[in-house]
Amino acid sequence: MYWTLIVIVGIVAAFFVWASADIGSGVYLKTLCRKRTDEPFVALTFDDGPDAVMTPRLLDVLDRYGVKAAFFLVGGKVRKYPDIVRRIVNDGHIVGNHTYTHSVMFPLSGGRSVRKEIEDTQNAVGNMAGVRMKLFRPPFGVTNPVIGKAVRYCGLQAIGWSVRSFDTFEGRDRTEVCRRIGRKLHNGAVLLLHDRCKDADVLLESVLKEIKARNMQVVTLDKLFDIEKYEN
């Protein structure tokens, strides 16, 4: 009986860890991570920006290739680099909410703090770029009942990913990162990248070439999932 109880407790604990850590679990928050489709569509997303150096370089690469992406922005950085945020929007890319501080403590915060992180970012982007975001990505991909309730309260749609690049690992060869992405690509994929990483522009260009070589097409999140990107 004792060991049976231990096993049950372990299974329950494992379930709750998985529910929080796996952004695609959908237990606490419905999150769009991939599109079930036969169309060769891929959506590009960038987290943790804007970055003073890398984000403009990424925008230059995207412009050369004629494709659009989504940038999930950190509110505190938005206030530091408003011109970059305005360029993202003016260039036709999507901006989404990635909280105000991207703190490691965010998943442990209370409801009021979580809502403030989200609302402060909404206000920062709204004031700087004149759009009211509808899309949200939780830091580290972690969700829980508090985060789920706050996101629903703010009227946002959570966006996850189906292909994680692992581009944040320092010293990791960009060519190998691109190869890994290529192996994971699939129809309806949402690709997670970061615009704060060294050589992010080099990696992006390699990824775009890989996508083209596979006869796939980059589309925006709103087209992929048929959702609204901003409030009307």
Written overview of the protein:
This protein is an alpha/beta fold and 232 residues long. The chain has one domain (2-224): Glycoside hydrolase/deacetylase (TIM Barrel, Alpha-Beta Barrel). It contains nine helices and nine strands. The protein has helices at residues 2-21, 54-65, 75-80, 82-90, 111-129, 145-153, 174-184, 200-213, 221-225; strands at 31-32, 41-49, 70-73, 94-97, 135-136, 157-159, 163-164, 189-194, 217-218. The strands form two sheets. Strands 2, 3, 4, 7, 8 and 9 form a six-stranded parallel beta sheet that branches. A three-stranded parallel beta sheet has the order 1-6-5, with no helix packed on it. Strand 5, helix 6 and strand 6 (157-159) form a beta-alpha-beta unit. Helix 2 (54-65) runs parallel beside helix 8 (200-213), helix 5 (111-129) packs parallel to helix 6 and helix 7 runs parallel beside helix 8.
